[in-house]
Amino acid sequence: MTQEELAQKMGVTQRVISYYETQTATISLDAIAKIARALDIPKRKLLDTETEPDQATELPKAIQKQVDKIRTLSPKAQKTVADMIDALAKVQVSTDNPSK
Questions:
Q1: What sign does the dihedral 52-55-61-64 (CA atoms) show?
Q2: Which of 18-32, 57-71, 86-100 has the highest mean pLDDT?
Q3: Which fold has domain 3-47?
Q4: Fewer CB within a 10 Å sphere, N or C end of the chain?
Q5: pLDDT digit string, tens, across residues 68-82
Q6: At 45, is the pLDDT very low, low, confident or very high (cuts 50, 70, 90)?
Q7: Are 6 and 35 in contact (CB under 8 A)?
Q8: Does the structure show a pLDDT above 60 at 44?
Q9: Cβ distance 25 to 35 under 8 Å?
Q10: Of residues 43, 50, 5, the one with CA closest to residue 27
Q11: How far is CA 8 from CA 1, 44, 72, 90, in A?
């Protein structure tokens, strides 16, 4: 959604939305309620300052350590690791589905 679209749904100008985004204006509770309605989300979601990791994408710590190590490798070495992972994934798929 663009600033202009949000502004239209809230009945304000795009400039007001820009001010809110850049934190150069204080947002009233009424404005928060309007934004929440325009975005079709609960008000508390707008007010929640703690970011929770997306559990669907959060990796186990041991895997995250391996990913961090891979990031330190050269691009060529990273590609080699990626190719190895792809090959292992294909082996796993063929083992899980012998007909393929």
A1: negative
A2: 57-71
A3: 434 Repressor (Amino-terminal Domain) (1.10.260)
A4: C
A5: 899 899 989 989 988
A6: confident
A7: yes
A8: yes
A9: no
A10: 43
A11: 11, 22, 47, 50
DSSP 6-37: HHHHHTS-HHHHHHHHHT-SPPPHHHHHHHHH
Q: Give how far the C-alpha of residue 81 lies from the chain's centroid of Cα atoms, to the nearest Å.
A: 25
Q: How many residues does the chain have?
A: 100
Q: Where are the domains of the chain?
A: 3-47, 61-96
Evaluate whether 19 touches 25 at the Cβ level (below 8 Å): yes
86: tokens are: 């792809």
Round to whole Å and give the CA distance between 95 and 48: 45
Asked if pLDDT for residue 51 goes beyond 80, the answer is no
Q: Given this model, what pLDDT does residue 72 score?
A: 92
Query: What whole-number distance in Å separates Cα of residue 92 and Cα of residue 15?
Result: 54
pLDDT of the residue at 30: 85
